[in-house]
Write a structure and sequence with these properties.
mainly alpha, 61% helix, single chain
Length: 354
């Protein structure tokens, strides 16, 4: 019985060994496959790592370049800010307007009407009591202010009240009186020569005709029209530096020669308005529409002015630029008309005061 059991059990061992061997081979194959997969995965990871290393400098470069853009944008930003700040400070002047002659006449006359309302007290800003004093004062006003002339002439006329007196004066004494007006030697020669001509050719009287006035030493058309308009009531246009500057800004004319300016502007207005037109324009030029920095923001005729924006447009800053009574300061005359005083004008101080 024992021998039979043993014989029956022996074949089991080879079968088990074979099964174990097969299992082992399968396990080995599986592990090999796993190892291969692992190797492939490792290789993939390495490749990815290598790729990421290569990409990293590019990212770094991009990061480095980013601040450059930021810096550039930071530099550009203030420029924009400055531009924004600068824009309101200087308004661009209006371009030349194209208008018919009829439209120009309407605009020019409207400007004069507006100025007449602003300066109802406009007047010649030289002190005078008679035509002789006015012609002398006007000659002296060249290259100086009316205020300086008004501070100087009281002493001159107190000593030489008539053309005959001034014609016989000692030039050195006259020069000393006229020294504050500048160019006193040339002016002394003119007023003495003018006085001699009045005494010898016109009986000591100032003539009331343009053709006679312009023959006097030192008297041109501008001076003649001042005398005719304000001492004789005869219309005339006074083209001084203020008048010429403003009519060109307003595009009434582009002429620079005083005689041509006078003709061009005179054609826009009735002759009866010429004298007061001159006062209005000159008053405006001295008080608001200055040569270097016009007070555009305080100008009553800004909507009619093609040159609006050449000066200060901010209303508060513009008001600080106003001169004479518009700015609360004394005017040019020591003895102004009552209408000027009634309007709040302040007389100028005498020579040497304050």
């Amino acid at each position: 019985m024992k021998t039979t059991k043993a014989a029956k059990s022996t074949p089991v061992k080879p079968v088990a060994k074979k099964a174990a061997k097969k299992a082992a081979q399968k396990a080995t194959a599986a592990s090999g496959k796993a190892t291969g997969v692992a190797k492939k995965a490792t290789a993939t990871i390495k490749k990815a790592a290598a790729a990421s290393k290569k990409a990293a400098p590019a990212k770094t470069a991009a990061k480095k370049s980013a601040p450059a853009k930021t810096a550039a944008s930071k530099k550009a930003a203030p420029a924009k800010t400055v531009a924004k700040k600068a824009a309101p400070a200087q308004a661009a002047p209006k371009k030349a307007i194209v208008e018919s002659h009829a439209a120009l006449v309407r605009r020019a006359r409207r400007i004069n009407r507006e100025l007449a309302e602003v300066y109802p007290y406009a007047h010649p800003e030289l002190d005078f009591e008679n035509p002789f004093q006015l012609v002398i004062a006007t000659v002296l006003s060249a290259q100086t202010t009316d205020l300086r002339v008004n501070q100087t002439t009281p002493g001159l006329f107190a000593k030489y009240p008539t053309p005959e007196d001034l014609a016989a004066a000692n030039p050195e004494e006259v020069e000393e009186i006229l020294r504050p007006t500048g160019f006193f030697r040339a002016k002394t020669k003119s007023v003495i020569g003018l006085s001699k001509a009045l005494a010898e050719d016109f009986g000591g009287e100032v003539p009331g005709r343009l053709e006679d006035l312009v023959k006097l030493p030192g008297v041109g058309r501008k001076t003649a029209f001042v005398v005719l308009g304000n001492a004789f009531g005869r219309p005339g246009i006074t083209v001084d530096t203020h008048f010429g500057r403003l009519v060109r800004r307003w595009q009434w004319t582009d002429e620079t020669d005083p005689d041509k300016v006078e003709a061009a502007v005179g054609a826009l207005f009735p002759k009866s308005e010429w004298t007061m037109l001159s006062h209005h324009v000159i008053f405006h030029g001295r008080r608001i529409c200055h040569a270097r920095k016009p007070a555009c923001g305080a100008c009553p005729i800004a909507p009619l002015c093609p040159a609006y924006g050449e000066g200060e447009t901010d209303p508060e800053k513009a008001r600080k630029l106003l001169k004479y009574e518009k700015g609360g300061f004394p005017g040019q005359r020591l003895n102004p008309p009552q209408s000027y005083l009634d309007a709040g004008g302040i007389p100028a101080p005498p020579l040497g005061a304050g």
